[in-house]
């Protein structure tokens, strides 16, 4: 299997130079696990990954190949085994894949981090609660992607700031943490993008939105990653761009506190 030279450069050069740990993501599995554009579906909106055993076997092969290739690299943290499975993806096939991929990787003596995601619409404390727990399983993290854009198009700014983020989402995390799972929680994606309630031109409101989110993200026991590092056209502020956020001094202080 050929590996893009960029991945080698990232893990073996740039990450070492800038002291960054790299978690590789199986963002688009064969057949597509979500039907979304970023999972490379053959038919837009259709997920066929779990319909055919060869798709699952191929994904195990890829995960193990990458884990084996970078096993001894200092900057290699691990692998997100499947990004945002949703649509018609079969949950039983998904959890069976997680277990098979885990054993395939661990059988070579590789104890890298492996993150597992519930179905995207099941990011709840009860999802995967007792799944792949220690001590039988090691270095398994649960991954959520909390965004406050999709599904919140009709929410008011005050509702998001006073209820949804500080109360509803904090309660979800409080419930998860109260379960004393051996799996650490990792917020693998989040951003300051929103459905139009907060604009950077309104500094006070936007910074309250940023502060409320960061307070939640910082409760993740395995930390968080921003989506994404940069986007085209982020010379002006863009909530999808971490680079853009870090160039904004008030936001940089909030995010990096």
From TrEMBL:
Subcellular location: Cell membrane
Enzyme class of the recorded protein, top EC level: hydrolase
Pfam family, one: Cellulase
The keyword Cell inner membrane is assigned to this record: no
Parts forming coiled coils: none
Catalytic activity: Successive hydrolysis of beta-D-glucose units from the non-reducing ends of (1->3)-beta-D-glucans, releasing alpha-glucose
Keyword Ligase: no
Gene Ontology CC annotations of this record: cell surface; extracellular region; plasma membrane
GO molecular function: glucan exo-1,3-beta-glucosidase activity
Gene Ontology biological process terms, A to Z: cell wall organization; glucan catabolic process
Keywords on record: Cell membrane, Cell wall biogenesis/degradation, Glycoprotein, Glycosidase, Hydrolase, Membrane, Signal-anchor, Transmembrane, Transmembrane helix
The EC number(s) this enzyme carries: 3.2.1.58
Domain Glycoside hydrolase family: 13-230
Protein topology in the membrane: Single-pass type II membrane protein
Function, as annotated: Glucosidase involved in the degradation of cellulosic biomass. Active on lichenan.
Family assignment from sequence similarity: Belongs to the glycosyl hydrolase 5 (cellulase A) family.
Protein name: glucan 1,3-beta-glucosidase
Organism (species): Pythium oligandrum
């Amino acid at each position: 299997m050929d590996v893009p030279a960029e991945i080698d450069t990232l893990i073996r050069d740039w990450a070492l130079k800038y002291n960054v740990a790299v978690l590789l993501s199986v963002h688009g599995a064969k057949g597509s696990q979500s039907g979304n554009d970023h999972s490379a579906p053959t038919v837009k909106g259709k997920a066929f990954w779990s319909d055919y055993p060869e798709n699952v076997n191929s994904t195990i092969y890829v995960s193990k190949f990458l884990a084996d290739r970078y096993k001894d690299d200092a900057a290699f943290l691990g692998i997100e085994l499947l990004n945002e499975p949703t649509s018609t993806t079969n949950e039983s096939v998904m959890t069976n894949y997680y277990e098979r991929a885990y054993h395939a990787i661990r059988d070579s003596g590789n104890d890298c981090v492996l993150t597992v995601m519930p179905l995207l619409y099941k990011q709840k404390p009860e999802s995967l609660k007792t799944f792949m727990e220690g001590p039988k399983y090691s270095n398994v993290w649960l991954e959520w992607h909390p965004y406050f854009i999709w599904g919140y198009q009709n929410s008011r700014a005050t509702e998001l700031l006073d209820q949804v983020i500080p109360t509803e989402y904090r309660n979800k995390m409080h419930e998860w943490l109260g379960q004393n799972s051996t799996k650490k929680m990792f917020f693998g994606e989040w951003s300051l993008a929103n459905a139009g309630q907060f604009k950077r031109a309104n500094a006070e409101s936007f910074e309250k939105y940023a502060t409320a989110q960061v307070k939640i993200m910082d409760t993740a026991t395995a930390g968080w990653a921003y989506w994404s590092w940069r986007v085209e056209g982020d010379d002006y502020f863009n909530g999808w761009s971490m680079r853009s956020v870090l160039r904004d001094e008030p936001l940089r202080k909030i995010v990096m506190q």
